[in-house]
Amino acid sequence: MVYPYIVWAAVMIVIPMLLILLYAFTAKGNSVRAFVFTLDNFKKFFSDPVFLSVLERSLYIAVVTTVICVLLGYPIAYIIARSSNISSARLLLLITIPTWINTLVRTYAWRGILDKTGIINYGLSFFGIGPVKFLETNFAVVLGMVYNFLPFMIIQIYNTLNKLDENYLYAAADLGATKFQAFLKVTLPLSVPGIVSGITLVFLPAVSSFFIPKLLGGGQYVLIGNVIESQFLTAGNWNFGSALSLIMAVVIIISMAVTRHIDKKINPEGEYED
Questions:
Q1: Which listed residue, of 14, 34, 110, 205, carries a Cα 20 to 30 Å from 189's Cα?
Q2: Neighbours of 195 (CB within 10 A)
Q3: How many CB atoms within 10 Å of residue 235?
C-alpha cells in the first residue's frame, strides 16, 4: 500500500523541488546549452538592499504574528481545556467553524471591515473619530494573519492541556503550592510541547504568506511571498523566483530545527532534561 504514496510524493514533492534547485542555480543558456550554472540569482538577492528589507519585514511580521497567537491562544486553549466536555466541544466548534470557509474569502471579508467606509470606521464615527486608515498597514496584515492562523495555535495547545494528568496539580496542591504557583511550575512547563507545535504551525505559513499581505496590505505592501509570486507569475523570471524559494526553504528549515531543538529539551513527561 505504500507504493502509491511513494509515487505521489515523487511526482508532487521530489520532482518540483529538483526543478526549483535546477532553476535556482542556473540561468538561460544559448542554443547549445539550455542551462548555464550560476550563482547570480543568489547574488542578486543578497546584494540588493530592497530584497533584504523585504525578507526582514517578512520575518518581523511572522514573529509578531506568532507572539500574538501565543498570547491570545494560550488563555483560550486553557479555558477550553478546563471547561466541561460539552462546553469544550462547543467552544472548539466555534474556533474551527471559520476554518470551514475558504481562507481567501475570509481574508477578503476583512477588507470590507477595515475599509474607510467599513463597520469599524462606521462605529468610530459616532465618537467623532475617523475615518482611520487600517488597510495597507502593518496592523491590517498582522490582524489578517492572526485571524487565519490563531486556530492552529489554540488547537495545538488545547490538545496538550487536555492530556495533562491532573494528579500533578493535586500533588502540587498537597505540597502547598497555590493555583498560580501550580500553573507556573506544572501546567506551563507541561504545555510547552503544544506551544512549540503551535509556533511551528503559525510561523511557517506566516513567513511565506502572500495573499494576506496582498489583500490587506495593498499593492505597495510586499513580503517575500509576494516577491516570489511576482517572479513566477508576472516577471516570468523562474530562475530568480526559484532562488528566492530556496532561500525561504532554508529559513523554514532553520526555524524548524530550532523548534525541534527546544522540543527535544523536554521529555515525554514534560520535564526539562539535565
A1: 205
A2: 21
A3: 12
How far is residue 213's CA from residue 216's CA, in Å, rounded to a whole number? 5
CA-nearest of 204, 185, 187 to 259 is: 204
Cell of 140: 491590517
Cell representation of residue 236: 516570468
H/E element, 78: helix 49-82
| pLDDT per residue as tens digits for the range 191-236 | 888 998 899 899 988 988 888 888 888 766 788 888 998 898 888 8
**pLDDT tens-digit map of 56-98:** 999 999 999 999 999 999 999 999 998 888 888 899 999 989 8
Which CATH code for domain 53-223? 1.10.3720.10
Is the four-CA dihedral 174, 177, 183, 184 of positive or negative sign? Answer: negative
pTM: 0.84
CA gap 138, 146 in Å, rounded = 12
Three-class secondary structure of residue 18 per DSSP: helix
